[in-house]
Structures are given as C-alpha cells and as structure tokens.
C-alpha cells in the first residue's frame, strides 16, 4: 500500500519553494528598494563626509576628520540646540492639542469618528508648501490675523509674529499635529472604558484617572506620536526658511545651505549624519530604557 505524499514532498517534486521561504521572497522587492534608496545613499553620504571640499565646490577625495571636528563649533552647536528646543516645544504643543482631540474622536459613535478623522487628514490633500504660504498670508503685518485684531480694536499697530521662532513653532505644530492625533486616536480607541469607570467608582480624582489610568494605557500612542512629530520637526527646513526668514536657522536649513549654497557637500554630509545618529541614539536609548528589562518585577 502506497504511503500518502506529504505537502513538502509535493512541493519538492513540483519545483515550488516551501511555504516557509515564500514570505522572504515577497520581501525581496521591498528590501532591494530600501537598499537602493536608503542604505546606498547613506553609505555614499558617509564616504563623502570624510572627504574634503574642492576649491570651487565639489568633493575632493582627501580623507579628513575636519568635517566632524567643525560640527562641534559653538555656532553649529547653538543651531543644533535651537533645533532640538523648537522640536521639543512643537512636540509638547502637539501633544497638548492632540490628546484631547484624539480622546474626543475615540469616544464618538463610529459614523462620526470617520467624519472627524477625515477632517484631521484633509490638510494632507494640500501640498505642504502651499499650506506654509497660507500661514504667511495669515501672520504677516497686513494679514488676516492683524486685520481681525485691528478690526476688533484689540491692537493699535500690527503684531510682529512672522519671521520669528513663534511663527516657526506655529507652522510646525500645524503641519505635524495630525501625526500626533492619529496614533493617539488608535491608542485611546483601544482603551477599556471599564477601567476608567472603575477608577471613578473608586473615587479617584480627575488628575488621578488621567495620570494613573489613561496615560499608562495609551503610552504606546504617546510615544509613537512624539517620535513622528519630533523627528521631522528637528530636521525641518521649509517652515523655518519661509516663516523664520533669515533671523532663525535650524539644522535643516544649515544642511540645505551647505549643500546648495556653500557647496560644501562633505560638511553637509557630516552634519546630516550627526543629526541622524543623535536622533537615532536618543530613540533607541529611550526604547531600551522603557523595555521589559527596565520594569520592576511585580510582587513584594
């Protein structure tokens, strides 16, 4: 009596790859794309960062560490610190504005949730540059903001908001607020309502319910939203360039200046890699500190 043929035997006889190998083959196009468009350019930047600038620009393949030594110049350190500070402020403001909005949307009926999420994502339908210019028309001396305030008799002279750090923060918060709302909404939607009600039944205060029940259970959304807002904010260059003018330079503007104006590609590459490594190191350090091994064991 013939023994039944196993599925693996049939796949081998037919020349098909085993099922365990198929997912890796499906990932192959994505891996090739990431290798060509992400890994290869990074290695190219790394190589250029150790080169020297030519007399009239360009790259001279004379290996040097001077580009990385120049990064710690006090001028560039101040620009880096300003970028981190504005990005941190942007993240905190997005969190303060986005959490109530996400909580409100998550507690609406499903039909209304879809409408509100559509309103949150509508800005993505318009080019980011166009939206930035819209804020310029709002904040300039003859813009909508000063016209309304003057019409209400609240100001006697135009408020000088444009081309300042305040304008940069306004533009960054407006641009990246949806990146905070969406992950927070996903986290709040999975929040068990019974736990919040139990905290109320145990006579917890509003602050205790928020800080000891809601925040710990929505922490993954908080972390994801903070990362999604902070990383593009610290490297932003369109908003600081248009709304900050020449008065305020961030690290993204410095990199753009080195590549396109000063034509110092080695130094621009070094700054970009230092920025990327600093952000990556901060994120990895935080995630490792918040990992399972850092949490205290339960019990006495």
Task: Kindly describe this structure.
The protein has 300 residues and is mainly α. It is built from 14 helices and 2 strands. A two-stranded antiparallel ribbon has the order 1-2. It has helices spanning 7-14, 22-49, 66-71, 74-106, 110-121, 128-139, 144-151, 165-189, 193-201, 206-217, 219-234, 238-243, 251-260, 265-289, and strands at 52-53, 59-60. The chain has one domain (64-283): MetI-like (MetI-like fold). It is globular. 70% of the residues lie in helices and 1% in strands.
Q: Could you provide a short overview of the structure?
A:
This protein is mainly α and 300 residues long. Helix content is 70%, strand content 1%. The chain has helices at residues 7-14, 22-49, 66-71, 74-106, 110-121, 128-139, 144-151, 165-189, 193-201, 206-217, 219-234, 238-243, 251-260, 265-289, and strands at residues 52-53, 59-60.
Rg: 26 Å
If you consult CATH, what is the topology? MetI-like fold
Structural class: mainly alpha
Principal-axes shape call: globular
Poorly predicted sequence stretches spanning 5 or more consecutive residues: 293-300
Largest sheet: 2 strands, antiparallel
What is the share of helical residues? Answer: over 70%
Strand arrangement across the biggest beta sheet = 1-2
User: Any idea what the CATH superfamily is called?
Assistant: MetI-like
Series of secondary-structure elements, N-terminal to C-terminal = HHEEHHHHHHHHHHHH
Question: Mean pLDDT score, rounded?
Answer: 85
**How many E-type strands?**
2
């Amino acid at each position: 009596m013939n023994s039944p043929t196993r599925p693996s035997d049939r796949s081998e006889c037919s020349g098909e790859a085993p099922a365990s190998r198929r997912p890796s083959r499906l990932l192959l196009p994505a891996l090739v794309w990431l290798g060509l468009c992400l890994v290869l350019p990074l290695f190219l930047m790394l190589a250029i960062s150790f080169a020297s600038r030519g007399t009239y620009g360009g790259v001279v393949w004379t290996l040097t560490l001077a580009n990385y030594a120049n990064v710690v110049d006090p001028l560039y350190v101040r620009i880096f610190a300003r970028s981190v500070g504005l990005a941190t402020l942007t993240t905190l403001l997005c969190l303060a504005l986005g959490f109530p909005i996400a909580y409100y949307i998550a507690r609406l009926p499903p039909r209304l949730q879809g409408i509100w999420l559509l309103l949150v994502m509508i800005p993505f339908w318009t080019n980011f540059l166009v939206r930035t210019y819209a804020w310029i028309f709002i904040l300039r001396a003859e813009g909508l903001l000063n016209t309304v305030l003057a019409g209400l008799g609240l100001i006697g002279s135009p408020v000088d908001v444009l081309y300042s750090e305040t304008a940069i923060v306004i533009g960054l918060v407006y641009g990246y607020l949806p990146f905070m709302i969406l992950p927070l909404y996903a986290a709040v939607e999975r929040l068990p309502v019974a736990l919040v009600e139990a905290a109320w039944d145990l006579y917890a205060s509003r602050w205790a319910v928020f800080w000891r029940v809601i925040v710990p259970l929505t922490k993954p959304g908080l972390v994801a939203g903070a990362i999604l807002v902070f990383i593009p904010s610290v490297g932003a260059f369109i908003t600081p360039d248009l709304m900050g003018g020449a008065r305020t330079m961030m690290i993204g503007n410095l990199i753009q200046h080195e590549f396109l104006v000063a034509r110092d590609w080695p130094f621009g590459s070094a700054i970009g890699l230092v920025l990327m490594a600093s952000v990556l190191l901060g994120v990895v350090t935080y995630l490792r500190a918040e990992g399972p091994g850092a949490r205290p064991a339960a019990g006495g």
